[in-house]
Design a protein that fits this description.
alpha/beta, 6 helices
Length: 172
C-alpha cells in the first residue's frame, strides 16, 4: 500500500521528482506498479506508459490491472480504463517517439530498471517528466551495480528530488 501511494505521488505531483522502488526478488514491485497504474487511470490523471527490457516481465502489471478493472488488452497491446490507457513500449521505441503531448501520458513506469543500461535510463528520465524506476538490485536482473553506481548518482544530481521506497516483505 505504501509503494502504491508513493507511485501515485509521482503521478499526482510535480514533474522531475522520480521514485526509485527497490527490493529483492518476489516482493511485488511489478504488481504494485499495476495497482498504482489502475488508480492513475481510474482517477483520470492520464495515460500510463510502461517499459522494461522484456514485455513478459511486466505481465503481472497487466494482470493486476485486469483483475482490478476487468479491462482487457486490445489488439495493440493497450488496456483502456475510462478515457485513458496503459501501454507497454520497449525503451528504444519510447525514446524514438518521445513524449507525445496529445497522448495524455502522465506517468512512465520502468520495470527491471537495473537490467537497462544507465545511458538508456538517463535518456528516459530526460525525455519523460514523471518516472518510476522499479528494480531488483540483486539477482536475476543482474548485479544492479550500474544502476546503483552510475545511474542513481546521476539521477540525484539532476532531479528536483528523488524519492526511494524499499519493499521488504515477500509476497511469493
Amino acid at each position: 500500500a505504501e509503494a502504491i501511494e508513493a507511485i501515485l505521488a509521482v503521478a499526482r505531483g510535480r514533474p522531475r521528482r522520480p521514485l526509485v522502488l527497490r527490493s529483492h526478488r518476489g516482493r511485488g514491485k511489478t504488481s504494485a506498479l499495476g495497482l498504482a497504474a489502475t488508480r492513475v487511470l481510474e482517477e483520470g490523471l492520464g495515460d500510463v506508459l510502461v517499459t522494461a527490457a522484456r514485455r513478459e516481465a511486466v505481465a503481472p502489471l497487466f494482470d493486476r490491472l485486469a483483475e482490478a478493472t476487468g479491462a482487457r488488452t486490445d489488439d495493440y497491446g493497450a488496456v483502456r480504463v475510462g478515457r485513458h490507457r496503459l501501454r507497454f513500449l520497449p525503451p528504444d521505441v519510447l525514446l524514438g517517439q518521445g513524449p507525445d503531448p496529445s497522448s495524455g501520458a502522465r506517468l512512465l513506469l520502468i520495470d527491471e530498471a537495473a537490467a537497462l543500461p544507465a545511458a538508456l535510463l538517463e535518456a528516459l528520465f530526460t525525455t519523460f517528466t514523471r518516472c518510476v524506476f522499479a528494480t531488483t538490485e540483486h539477482g536475476y536482473e543482474g548485479s544492479g551495480r550500474g544502476f546503483t553506481l552510475r545511474f542513481l548518482p546521476w539521477l540525484e544530481s539532476l532531479a528536483a528530488s528523488v524519492h526511494h521506497h524499499w519493499l521488504t516483505t515477500p509476497i511469493r
